[in-house]
Amino acid sequence: MEILLAIMIGVLYASGIYMILRRSLVKLIIGIILFGNGANLLIFLLGRITKGAPPIIPGESEVFLEAYADPVPQALILTAIVISFGLQSFAIILVRRAHKVVKTDDLDEMNATDEDS
Amino acid sequence: MTHQLIIYPLFLQILLAILLMFFWNRINSQRIISILGSTVNLGISIWLFTAIWEHGTTTVQAGNWEAPFGITFVADMFSATLVLLTAISGLAVSVFSSGSIIPDRLRFGYFPIFHFLLLGLNGAFLTGDIFNLYVWFEIIIISSFVLITIGGEKAQLEGAVKYFTMNIIASMIFLTAIAVLYGLTGSLNMADLAGKVAAIENRGLVEVTAILFLIGFGIKAAVFPLYFWLPASYHTPPSAVSAIFGGLLTKVGVYALIRVFTLIFVGDAFLDQILMGIAILTLFSGGVGALVQNNVRKVFSYLIICHIGYMIVGLGMFTEVAIAGTIFYLIHDIVVKTNLFMLSGLIYKINGSNSMRVLGGFYGKYPKLSLLIFIPLFSLVGIPPLSGFWPKISLINAGFTTGSYWTIGAIIFASFITLVIIAKLWAEVFWKTPEDRPRHASFEYFSDISKIRKIQFIGPIVFLSLVSLYIGFGAEHIQLLSSRIAEELINNDQYIDAVLNNGSQMLEK
Questions:
Q1: Which end of chain A is more exposed for a tag (fewer CB within 10 A), N or C?
Q2: pLDDT tens across B118-160, in order?
Q3: CA of A60, closest CA in chain B: separation in Å?
Q4: What is the ipTM of this complex?
């Protein structure tokens, strides 16, 4: 299971970076989304995957009796997902506005800011 | 009790931001609230600064969770100083924006977002938890995205796409680094991490994690191979926005680099080599980049990059004198860079252009203003006794003791090239006879605006120039402060102790 997840994270990172490197604005957004999901899954994986062991201490005990799923990474992912969701929605609106104003989908043609003025 | 004081700057900024949203369409009320709020914030920051100066590092544990488990807020001397500088720049830019930004832009919630940005900055400086640092970074970049796009001009949107992409990538890399670090140590508290990272046997993996942090923060700080988004975007928004970006946003990256590389990843020769290499190349490429630009604001953008190099150089040498130089330079640079972008806005308002080809004759028309502008420009170059001079002594001194002569060469080269650039700027903008240009009918020139708005333009520049003069002439005090910060950063036991042990003592009480 862990090895499968590791491979998937690798694929997500690679395809995300590949898409960001393309010249199209839409592919840029897809790339950012894939990259973000890769990072979130990585946090999940690094909390060690433990099946069916919630982090609850039994009533009669004071400490954990057996291996348990670390709850911290899951809290972190939740935060990270919400943040990346916000950023991605902003990205989509920004790209739509940029496309309307600049009238191109090609990042190579967006070079007005590099011109001498 | 002083330890509650740490979160007052955060509370104040979030309260201001929320309050300002209730005055969405009432621009004048927003201006007054923002300026008053920033003044109060300056008061609180001075209070915090003096309290920390007297009592040393202070911590607050959120929800009274003991140190490595909850979120910790830590105010050591370094954080308190940066919060104070944020308040100084924040007040100046708040006054400057209420005069310089047109009401059409203010109507889209400029001031609330501005205070959210300051909230993020204060939070990033005060947090002691690495994931919390990531969250503050996100607050900063989301606010900065809105500020950079507000108005929606073509150049702004193009600049924003580049700014946005690079900053998101930086955040993702930072998040990846946090994930790997958590996997290695099982902790997120920076003081706790310091001990746990030092105990890891697989140094290769630690170095890879450190490099991930270096890339993530390096993009934000705009160091050598990662800076190209900065000159493509910083000159596009209104100059008040550029001022806060140029003064503080890249410095958050530098702050994070200094924090992480003096606390968590310490004493790795390989990393120090990389930092030095990056710093030297940043000094060279930023300087040479600025030399060929013709737009005043683009020149300043490249100078930001160039001078980031000075701070990273000190971090790379990693001696107490070098770190003191870095901190002194950071203090000087925040004030001067904020001021530079504000005065580029003033030049634009007076002449209707920022291109050095068409500008000129400023000195003939406004001799007193020119003398005022002289102060930040030549503080930047570091003509003694102005403020940029003193930290370079520490840095060069440290260069001799560590035997890194390349660094000394780069520092001197970058100072020299800055001098050339500023001299060129002075000759082109202030002395040269300008071409006759027709006045734009639709543009509101400086001579047309009311007296109170003129004060809003010039007041903040005078204020920051005075601060710069103080840093230059009162260098003794700043040197004392930066030496103390450097001492605290190098001997980080005291920071770790304050975080990990104070929390439990507080609970026992």
A1: N
A2: 999 999 999 999 999 999 999 999 999 999 998 888 888 888 9
A3: 23
A4: 0.93
